[in-house]
Structure formats: structure tokens, C-alpha cells
Amino acid sequence: MEIISLLLGLTIFFNIALGISIIFLERKDATSTWAWLMVLLFIPIIGFFLYLIFGKPISKRRIFTWDTKSRLGVKTAVQSQLRALERDSFSFKHEEIAEYEDLVYLHLRNDDAIFTQDNTVDIFTDGKEKFDALIQDMERATDHIHLLYYILRSDQLGDRIADVLIKKANEGIEVRVLYDDMGSRTLKPRYIKRLRRAGAQVEAFFPPKIPKINFKINYRNHRKLAIIDGKVGYTGGFNIGDEYLGTVKKFGYWRDTHLRICGDAVTNMQTRFILDWNQASRHHIFYDERYYNHSHQGDVGIQIVSSGPDSEWEQIKNGYIKMIMSAKEYIYIQTPYFIPDDSLRDAIRIATLSGVKVRIMIPNKPDHPFVYWATLSYIGDLLNAGAEIYIYQNGFLHAKTIVVDGKIASVGTANIDVRSFRLNFEVNAFLYDKGVTERLVEAFNNDIEHSTQMTKKLYDQRSLGIRFKESISRLLSPVL
């Protein structure tokens, strides 16, 4: 009995101490704080260890470091654009984009996201087309290939990518592959060894210091970047795995959105890759070795915006809110997970109540059940406000896309959920161009033909079992 009393006393002590830490020292938002307190209350011992693994905030020290020369160069370019915007002397190639100069300013000031206007953009919504194009570009590489993916699998697609990388490495091309340790946890060691034997450099982001014990497991590099010769860049939702080709029965056809970019925006994508690579590897890349003079072929305006738990501001989420609040006609959103925080949910609700047509498309099946049920709970709020909700039926929808008024858009890796905004390292392309946004609108409208509309009547007919799952998932969503 004395041992049991001692253990009980220690458990209560640790729970109280951790609760005090969460409330007074870490200053989490109220929703997250209450969620963790409930975890500690209902599963006290297990909850303590869950918090150490999933809830402990990441250090705000500088995770990504710059060399002085490169940092000064970026800051100089940013300050130059900021001054031009403040003096109303910034020259936009397209007059209709000038009305969004406050969005450009937001990303410049808070994320050093340099605005470029000489880009061309290809849009991929099919995995086979995207990877065929990527492989063709890698085959043409003459200097280097840089890949960063959250998920890298040693399956048929993974092997196909590896074959090209090994071939190019044997030709003397510098090959660097960076993957997230958590997202790529099924990656086989022999896959990595095969690449390294050919001369490719391969690194994991936030690997465990002690095998099988990783206290940074909750902070994932969810970015997807591919840069070839500093001239061609890819970003979007596709990872490297057979499911992204639509060959896995569980998901069926995989509907995603990915961009192929040429122009000065690729330099900013390259900067993001180098920062991430230098964090993970001892073999650093010098920034000035990886920049090239681009041929100015296009006129698409782009900002490459990053966010992560090391940042003071939630840059991508703030960009979403700014876009939504600027809408006059319509907002089209595609996301596999819809778990907005109060600020984003209020922005969408206000836009809807203001007469802006809001259309949100989500998948009809979960790849993460808790997140899926939480998503269903949140769409009910917006149905009541008048938003149109569509459930994609032709496989799995994984696109992370927002389009506003056919003039601006965002495509990238960030979902509309708390994890993407606060816990994951993400990257999005914010696009300022009518032609690109019209193509994204066309893709959205094509997807509507493969979707069913969730009406308020259908939503209200949900069974008690589904409502219970939604309530529990919504309660736990801040800590998922």
C-alpha cells in the first residue's frame, strides 16, 4: 500500500508540475492547453510521456543558420522591396496585382519572401505526369540535383527515382537527398546505402540521437522541394511513393497539386533547401555556389513562403487569412484536412457572411482517421454560415490549394490544420497571376464533377456514432 501511495503521490506531483509548466511557462494557446490538461487528467502516467514526445515545444534558438554574406544579400533585397512598397514606387508587371501589395508586404516583412515576377509555372494534378516531368528534368541535370521530401519510400517509384539519381551521381552530378525521419520511417537502410555508394549525399531531418527514441518526432519537415541546376524547381503536395501514383488500393486515384517553376523564384526555393540541408548535414552548401542567372521567360509573380515551429509568426496561415479577407467574389479551398484555428475559421466565416462565395473541397476517406473526423466537425460551422462543401469521390484528395477571385493563389505543402501551422516545417508558393489562378479554378471545377455536395440537411443526418467520433477528434485536434 505504501508503494502504491508513493507512486500515486509522484504521479500527482508530476502532473501538477507539468500542468503549471504548460499554463504559466510555455504559454500555449488556450485550446492546446486545455487539450493537454485533459490528457494529463485522464491518462496521467502515459500522458506525461506523451507530452514529453509530442507536446514539448521546440527550442526557439536558430535552427537554420546563414553565412553572413548570404544573409546580408537577402536582407538587402528584402529591404529594397519593402522601401519601394512603402513609397508606392514598386513596379508590378500586372496592374491587377497591385491591389495585393499588402500581401506581398506581409510575406516580405515577416518571412523575407522576396517577390519575383519573371517566372513560368506548370501545374500538375496527376502523380504520373508530375514524376515523369521531374525525372526528365533530373535526366537533363548538368550540375546538381536537390531533393527534399517528407515521405520517401523504397518502393517502385522510390527505386525509379533512385536509379536516376545514381546514374547522375556516377556522371559527376552533385546529388543531395533530404528526407524527414518520421515521414520516411519505412525507408529501408539499403536504399540509403545504395545512393551513398554512388556518391549521392543523403541526410535525415531531425533523426533520433538515441535509436527509436525521438523527442522531436512531433516536429516534422513536411516540405517537398526539388531543384535541378538552380533553374527548375518543384513544390506541392506529392511525396515519393507508389500511393502518389494512384496504385495503392486503399486510396485509389491520388488527386494532388504540384508546381514546376522556372525563373527567379527557384533561387528562393534553393535558399529554403540549403537552409534545411545545412541544418541536417555536416557537409554544408555555400549559398553563392548555387545561384544562376536565369533567362527571364515568364511574368508570373511568386513568393516562396516558409513557416515552422521555430518561427515567431505563423507565416503561411497569416497569408491564408490575408488572402481570404481580401476576397470580393469567391474563395476556393482544397485540403485533405480542415482543422482551422479560431482566427482562420472566423476569417472564412466572415467572408461567407459578407456574400463571398466560399467553396471548400475535402476527401471522402481518411488517411488519418482522427484528423478526418475532426475535419467533418469543423465543416458544420461553415455550412451554417452558407459555405459550399464538396466531398471528393474519385480517390483521395491531397491538394493544398487556395484561390481567391481568380487573381491570387497559394499552392504548397501546408494543410489547413493546427499541425501545419504550428508544428510542421512547411513551404508554399504564393502566386500572383490571373493565368495560373484560372488554371487552378478550372481544375477545381473539374473536381466538382467528381464530388458530392454536403448539404446542411445531409450533415444533420449524421449518426450518433459519427457525431461522437467528431466530438472526440475535435477535442483532441490541438494535440494530434
UniProtKB/TrEMBL annotation:
GO MF annotation terms: cardiolipin synthase activity
Segments forming domain PLD phosphodiesterase: 217-244, 393-420
Keyword Membrane appears in the UniProt entry: yes
Membrane topology: Multi-pass membrane protein
Pfam families recorded: PLDc_2 (PF13091), PLDc_N (PF13396)
Catalytic activity: 2 a 1,2-diacyl-sn-glycero-3-phospho-(1'-sn-glycerol) = a cardiolipin + glycerol
Keywords from the named record: Cell membrane, Lipid biosynthesis, Lipid metabolism, Membrane, Phospholipid biosynthesis, Phospholipid metabolism, Repeat, Transferase, Transmembrane, Transmembrane helix
Record has Cell membrane as a keyword: yes
InterPro entries: Cardiolipin_synth_Firmi, Cardiolipin_synthase, CLS_N, PLD-like_dom, PLipase_D/transphosphatidylase
Gene3D superfamilies: Endonuclease Chain A
BP term (GO), one: cardiolipin biosynthetic process
Top class in the EC scheme: transferase
Protein family (similarity comment): Belongs to the phospholipase D family. Cardiolipin synthase subfamily.
Function: Catalyzes the reversible phosphatidyl group transfer from one phosphatidylglycerol molecule to another to form cardiolipin (CL) (diphosphatidylglycerol) and glycerol.
Protein name: Cardiolipin synthase
Organism of provenance: Oceanobacillus picturae
